[in-house]
Amino acid sequence: MDRPTAGDKATLICPSYVDGTDTDYYTLFGLEAIMERLDGGIRYDLGRDFLGSARLNLQHYLWKDTLNYDIHPSIPVAHDHLRIADVGTGTGIFLLGLCRRLPPSTSFQGLDVSADQFPNAEWTPANVSFRKVDAMQDPPADLQGKFDIVHLRLFTCVVENDDPLPILSHCLSLLKPGGYLQWDEYDSGTTGVIGSTPGAPTQLLNSMLQAMGSNRPLSFPDNSWIPRLDDLFRAQGMQSVQKISTRPPPELLKAYTEMLLVAHLEHASLHDADGASVGGDRLRKLIGQGAEEMKKGGAFNHMLQVVVGRKPCVFSEGSGEKSS
Ligand SMILES: C[S@@+](CC[C@H](N)C(=O)[O-])C[C@H]1O[C@@H](n2cnc3c(N)ncnc32)[C@H](O)[C@@H]1O
């Protein structure tokens, strides 16, 4: 499915409990106005203010607590002078945690198309730096082939047209021959809503998922690439590819759900910023109703997917494995 345009009405039906009538999602939340704005600039559907940053930081710690690692244990880090890049780094929280446990000779570079969420440079360790770089383009020449490890996480809202290849190619270009790529996403194929008891209400959270999750109408209408990401790594010639799926433990599901409700609130603020506050208000009402369900035991239930692969020592992009 192509990226929707302002004239492309959704087929998604929003639940009638919001205003008593079934209506399409675009009209209900005033998304046409937002899409027009986004068409005029670099698209990003989440907030970059302190609320968005706090959510990213909370999400990082939930992921870390669930996975029990930041860099997957199959990737060797016991070397001096490693160079590590985090693509789409956001607040840089991934690198800020990593730099405390790896040797001071390691250098860390956070890259993002926006500097809005970068940490304060004066309080950032000397071996950590941040830079504005667009992952949809070729990396700047001075970064190409320079990194032992490239990490990226949560690019669902960045990938266009269900095609992560431009970003995958960007990451491969950053890597040294023999370097490792780790790409972390929520596995859209296994996303669902569950209740803590058989009677716990889940209808509204389910409706939110339908509208905002696997079929996000705003800018990421199709996420079918996520479960295929390991195959895409192989098709690009990467070696030692593995896909690891991890389900958060039940005791963390409420915290995950609260964090994801904040992401929906960020969407609502985008509507306000676009002068579509009626849509924002409706979305906030839906979020409030979802939060009430959560108090009664409803929760989002996402698998965390980590894909790891190694760039061959002799590499020719897209032409399969050459040699190790
Ligand atoms: C959902 S956030 C994830 C942030 C971080 N990876 C984390 O897990 O905390 C997505 C990030 O991708 C960045 N981004 C969006 N479009 C981008 C692009 N074209 N190139 C590089 N980064 C981009 C956003 O600015 C944002 O920081």
UniProtKB/TrEMBL annotation:
Report the InterPro entries cross-referenced here.
Methyltransf_25 (IPR041698), SAM-dependent_MTases_sf (IPR029063)
* Ranges for domain Methyltransferase: 84-179
Superkingdom of this entry's organism?
Eukaryota
PANTHER family annotated for this entry? METHYLTRANSFERASE, PUTATIVE-RELATED
Q: What is this protein called?
A: Methyltransferase domain-containing protein
- Source species of the chain: Talaromyces rugulosus (Penicillium rugulosum)
